[in-house]
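Input (structure):
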């Protein structure tokens, strides 16, 4: 419980209209996409780096947990206030401060919604590639915290590849800057990359310098139906072997297709057991040749049908097939456990085989889709937790899913982070010596462990407070 005098101090910094201590307000800031919930002690909206600094100074003095929050759209519990304290909401810091068309750089505040920046950049003929599925509501600050990816990262990379510099409030309330607006910078340690993906445990980002690209001249979208998932997976390998790196290379398995068949804007016959959604972009003449070459290399792999969009409306129709997936999964069962494992893309067929085996072994539906071009598979374990023993079964399945991914030289998380939901599995992938160095970094940056505590590391392994 936070003392009343601390609440009054917070009101003095941001104004009483930006501090919420009623239970109803705390409930609305207590959960994320995991649907788990932890009540904070107080919710505070900040509007500037100076305000964030003063808030963190108070938190540091009184050893109060403080958690920076954007849209709360994460899938691993990164924005859950598991230790209570202050939920510091940054959505009012939502200004695009600059889009520099000469140097292809944008400067933004953390509350800017990802798709808003993309639209504003495109008006100027520029392009910000990272495109998480939640781009229409997730914030760039959250993208930085989780190092968000998306379908386009197979060609363009993830958030960390576009962060040139940051303004960060440290655990003691200092405001520091890392990196800058130049593409080259080797002055001292690369603190920028250290903060990206740290899930708010090392500092609170209050300004972001982003690299932009010229907007591609054209794009071409294709939807290919396959007889088997293994044919589709082999298709991914053949496309890359043909020296083509598509903008996006998404796959849907048979269980996913069953969920959307009735609502798909494109007919999906029963014989269709897998789908690849392929998009290429760039010079108009080049992408026409790439599309022809892609069709040539995948045709022998059990292709049932192919749709190549010739208009923007047809392209949107193809992507609507993919967008229908998440909202349709609960046709299978009411409870979803979503994991985002990643394996080398050549190992996608092996991972799909392993997942099919686990579904049969435990008699639970496992629905798979995701970014085949970079091996990032979204594994959805669909169950009814009202069934006796099902929660225990889910844990066994998840354990085996992660072990299978690691056995194929993969990772337990491609873009969702660790947060709370995967911290018990951290040691499965990262050896104890490496975890120890991570904890030393956390202790050095945040000696009192006030910044988003209870994340990434298991509670018993939290950095020791000094």
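Output (sequence):
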């Amino acid at each position: 419980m936070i003392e009343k005098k601390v609440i009054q101090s917070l009101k003095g910094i941001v104004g009483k209209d930006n501090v919420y201590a009623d239970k109803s307000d705390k409930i609305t800031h207590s959960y994320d996409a995991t649907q788990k919930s932890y009540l904070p002690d107080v919710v505070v909206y900040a509007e500037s780096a100076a305000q964030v600094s003063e808030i963190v100074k108070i938190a540091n003095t009184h050893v109060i947990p403080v958690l920076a929050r954007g849209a709360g759209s994460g899938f691993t519990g990164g924005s859950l206030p598991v230790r209570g304290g202050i939920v510091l909401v940054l959505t009012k810091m939502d200004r695009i401060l600059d889009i520099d068309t000469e140097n292809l750089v944008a400067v933004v505040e953390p509350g800017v919604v990802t798709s808003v920046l993309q639209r504003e950049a495109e008006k100027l003929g520029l392009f910000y590639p990272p495109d998480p599925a939640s781009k229409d509501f997730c914030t760039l600050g959250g993208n930085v915290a989780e190092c968000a990816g998306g379908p386009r990262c197979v060609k363009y990379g993830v958030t960390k590849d576009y962060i040139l510099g940051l303004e960060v409030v440290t655990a003691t309330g200092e405001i520091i800057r890392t990196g800058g607006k130049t593409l080259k910078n080797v002055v001292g340690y690369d603190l920028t990359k250290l903060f990206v993906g740290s899930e708010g445990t090392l500092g609170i980002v209050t300004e972001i310098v982003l690299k932009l690209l010229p907007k591609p001249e054209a794009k071409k979208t294709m939807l290919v139906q396959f007889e088997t998932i293994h044919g589709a997976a082999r298709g991914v390998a053949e496309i890359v072997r043909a020296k083509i790196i598509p903008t996006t290379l998404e796959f849907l398995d048979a269980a996913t297709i069953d969920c959307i068949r009735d609502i798909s804007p494109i007919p999906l016959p029963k014989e269709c057991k897998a789908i690849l959604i392929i998009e290429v972009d760039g010079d108009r003449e080049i992408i026409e040749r790439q599309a022809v070459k892609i069709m040539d290399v995948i045709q022998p792999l059990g292709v049932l049908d192919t749709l190549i969009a010739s208009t923007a409306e047809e392209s949107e129709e193809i992507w609507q097939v993919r967008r229908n997936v998440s909202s349709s999964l609960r046709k299978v069962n009411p409870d979803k456990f979503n994991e985002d494992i990643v394996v080398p893309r050549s190992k996608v067929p092996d991972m799909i085989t392993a997942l099919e085996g686990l579904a049969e072994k435990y008699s639970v539906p496992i629905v798979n889709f995701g970014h085949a071009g970079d091996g990032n598979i979204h594994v959805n374990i669909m169950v009814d937790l009202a069934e006796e023993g099902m929660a225990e079964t889910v844990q066994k399945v998840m354990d085996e899913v992660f072990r299978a991914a690691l056995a194929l030289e993969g990772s337990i998380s491609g873009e969702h982070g660790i947060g709370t939901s995967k911290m018990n599995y951290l040691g499965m992938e990262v050896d104890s010596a490496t975890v120890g160095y991570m904890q030393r970094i956390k202790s050095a940056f945040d000696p009192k462990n006030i910044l988003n505590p209870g994340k990434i590391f298991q509670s018993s392994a939290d950095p020791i407070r000094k």
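Notes: Residues 460-466 have pLDDT under 50 and may be disordered. The chain has 15 helices and 18 strands.
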